[in-house]
Amino acid sequence: MQGSFRKNEMTSRFENKHVVVTGGARGIGRCISEAFLREGAAITIIDLDKQAGEQLQRAATSEKLRFYHGDIAEKDVLERFVKSLGSPVNCLVNNACLNRCGLLSACSYDDFEYVQRVGVTAPYYLTSLLLRTRLLSPDAAIVNIASTRAWQSQPNTESYSAAKGGIIALTHAMAISLAGKARVNSISPGWIEIAAWQESRAKDWADLEHSEQDKRQHPAGRVGKPEDIAEMALYLCSDKAGFITGENIIVDGGMSRLMVYHNDYGWALEKQETGMCARAL
Ligand SMILES: NC(=O)c1ccc[n+]([C@@H]2O[C@H](COP(=O)([O-])OP(=O)(O)OC[C@H]3O[C@@H](n4cnc5c(N)ncnc54)[C@H](O)[C@@H]3O)[C@@H](O)[C@H]2O)c1
């Protein structure tokens, strides 16, 4: 295997483990899939984006990465997908989600509901199907990808924020129902740079351009990388996290801990925008 798929012979923490990642063809999901593959796991990805999924499968050149094309908002797709899984699942990463904005752009009933189906219903139903078909391995780990937008909002983000609030609550509910069977945790990313990461896979992170302000507003001094989330997913799925369940871990460079008041510590409110559809995620 080449480049970012090369196996980590030193650790191989997930050898003989089967990991399912939703939305694993692009972005954070792809980075998580690559990280588990490097650690020796067999990966099954389900994603809507056929082209990206097939391209990923070719690039991985490994039988350990399998791509299944489908929309996780569809009940029968999830049922067919689970039937297609050849072996029990040790780790499930519910990563796929999307934003269809909200009140200020007249997000429709169908749009709002679709986001909830992808972001909340699919993680629930996939877990339920694995449980009922006995494909959820004993001592499994489930990681749900939430967002700091579960707690903080920009205008016009209702569909997305509701899904993220939902998946946080789903996480602790499933952790209690699955006690003794699976640990269930969520990760709430802040701003994670996806576009630049995908376009510049060969480049160093240092080459990616963010303004000084974008970096300095984060207490950690930089914007997030997909690897920041992948590392946390590996940890939460590992035995080292055996005493952690029902928990949400915020990975946002400290951004949501920062208190902002006009004219304090260099912050100034210049213009208040409403009505625009916020940055994708
Ligand atoms: N990037 C960020 O700054 C950020 C911040 C907070 C949370 N998140 C969360 O991280 C996760 C991944 O985000 P990303 O930035 O990598 O997004 P992305 O849009 O780059 O990737 C999402 C992937 O999910 C797939 N997908 C979307 N809807 C699907 C569906 N109905 N069925 C199957 N596959 C579907 C897409 O095809 C894509 O491959 C999401 O849950 C997102 O809400 C991202």
Structure write-up:
The protein has 281 residues and is α/β, with parallel strands linked by helices. It has a single domain, classed as 3-Layer(aba) Sandwich (Rossmann fold). It has eight helices and seven strands. It has a seven-stranded parallel beta sheet, sandwiched between helices. α1 links the parallel β1 and β2. α1 packs across α8, α3 packs parallel to α4 and α4 packs parallel to α5. The protein binds nicotinamide-adenine-dinucleotide (NAD).
H/I helix tally: 8
User: Structural class, from secondary structure content?
Assistant: alpha/beta
Q: Assign the CATH topology.
A: Rossmann fold
User: Going by CATH, what is the homologous superfamily?
Assistant: NAD(P)-binding Rossmann-like Domain
A few lines on this structure:
About 35% of the residues lie in helices and about 15% in strands. The protein is α/β, with parallel strands linked by helices and about 280 residues long.
Keywords:
alpha/beta, Rossmann fold, single chain, 281 residues, 7-stranded parallel β-sheet, binds nicotinamide-adenine-dinucleotide
Write the layout of secondary structure elements.
Blueprint: E1 18-22, H1 27-38, E2 42-47, H2 50-60, E3 65-69, H3 75-84, E4 89-94, H4 109-132, E5 136-145, H5 158-177, E6 182-189, H6 195-199, H7 212-216, H8 226-237, E7 248-251
Parallel strand pairs: 1-2, 1-4, 2-3, 4-5, 5-6, 6-7
Helix pairs in contact: 1-8, 3-4, 4-5
The site of nicotinamide-adenine-dinucleotide has 26 residues, from helix 1 and strand 2.
